[in-house]
Please model this.
Amino acid sequence: MLLGVPLASYFLVFKPQNTEIARAKSEIGIKRDLLEKVKQETARSADLRRTNEEMKTAIAAIEARLPSDKEMDLVLRDVAQIAARAGLNVPNFRRVEKSIPAGTAMEQPLEVELTGDFDGLYRFLIDIERLPRITRLTDVKIERSDVADGFMRAEFVLSIYYQGEAFGTATATAGKAGN
Model:
């Protein structure tokens, strides 16, 4: 009987409690791991919010550089004035085709022909690059002119990106949806 009471208490009391304690420790370990994962996801969520805000700021800066379709004539006038300041003649300056969708903006390609001094072309290109508007030059062809040394004739396609009517509406709708 003396040996039976401790053995019985071991099998009836202590062993089930040890099993319960081991199971509780296992659950605590699982819950700690889960809590750690939640902490990591929460930290990432804050990083994602900050990154989203940075991206919104960058998008707003790019959108600010896109003229509206009503301002396109002003941009074209600026390009012509830049060419004149660089001492270049613009015998040909025309729209190639209708505007082309370019993501959420529109692209207006223009065929441009310039004649004059090569240094003037260089100044023109630098000034175009400094424009606050987003532009792109493609299909550039430069030929030496027989008129005088250093004179040339250049042809290229100048694409000007701008906000179309649908773009402004979509941006305003997206801005309201984000608030």
